[in-house]
């Protein structure tokens, strides 16, 4: 059984490009790039800095801690073995929803932006 949680307005995220949300005690970093939405664990897999304060550039998010660059589609760090964990994400009626109970080693496919 899936447990999708409504966390943000798509229009707001598309303007800001990134947003920190929390589900229960869990901080989740949302990113918007090239028309798609991605959800990652906010704590960087390297040393735990907040990825939500990173910079989105060329399909990657660059961590503010030590500038590791993570591919938004896969979570894979450039030139490293580490992968930033992520969450399934979907768009429903202009709202961003995540499954905070389904942290994965790497994000699943990005959410298609199907508007109703
Ligand atoms: S904490 Fe993110 S690169 Fe070091």
Q: How would you explain this protein's 3D organization?
A:
The chain has 116 residues and is mainly β. The mean pLDDT is 90. The strands form 3 sheets. A 3-stranded antiparallel beta sheet has the order 1-9-8. It is built from 1 helix and 9 strands; from the N terminus they run E-H-E-E-E-E-E-E-E-E. It is 6% helix and 36% strand. The chain has one domain (5-98): Rieske [2Fe-2S] iron-sulphur domain (Rieske Iron-sulfur Protein, 3-layer Sandwich), CATH 2.102.10. The structure holds FE2/S2 (inorganic) cluster (FES). FE2/S2 (inorganic) cluster is lined by residues 44, 46-47, 49, 63, 65-66, 68. Residues 4-98 form the Rieske domain. GO terms for molecular function: 2 iron, 2 sulfur cluster binding; metal ion binding; monooxygenase activity; oxidoreductase activity, acting on paired donors, with incorporation or reduction of molecular oxygen. Keywords: 2Fe-2S, Iron, Iron-sulfur, Metal-binding.
Descriptive key words:
single chain; 116 residues; mainly beta; Rieske Iron-sulfur Protein; 9 strands; globular; binds FE2/S2 (inorganic) cluster; oxidoreductase activity, acting on paired donors, with incorporation or reduction of molecular oxygen; Rieske domain-containing protein
Quickly describe the structure.
This protein has 116 residues and is mainly beta. It is built from 1 helix and 9 strands; from the N terminus they run βαββββββββ. A hairpin with a 6-residue loop joins strand 6 (60-62) and strand 7 (69-71).
Helix and strand layout, with pairings?
Layout: E1 5-9, H1 10-16, E2 18-23, E3 26-33, E4 36-41, E5 55-57, E6 60-62, E7 69-71, E8 89-92, E9 95-98
Antiparallel strand pairs: 1-9, 2-3, 3-4, 5-6, 6-7, 8-9
Bound molecules: FE2/S2 (inorganic) cluster (FES).
């Amino acid at each position: 059984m899936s447990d999708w949680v409504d966390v943000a307005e798509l229009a707001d995220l598309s303007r800001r490009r990134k947003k920190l949300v929390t589900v229960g005690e869990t901080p989740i970093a949302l990113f918007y790039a090239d028309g798609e939405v991605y959800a990652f664990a906010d704590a960087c897999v390297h040393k735990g800095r907040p990825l939500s304060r990173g910079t989105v550039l060329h399909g990657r998010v660059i961590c503010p801690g030590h500038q590791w660059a993570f591919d938004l589609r896969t979570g894979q760090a450039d030139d490293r073995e580490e992968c930033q964990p992520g969450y399934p994400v979907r768009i429903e009626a202009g709202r961003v929803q995540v499954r905070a109970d389904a942290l994965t080693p790497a994000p699943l496919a990005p959410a298609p932006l199907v508007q109703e």
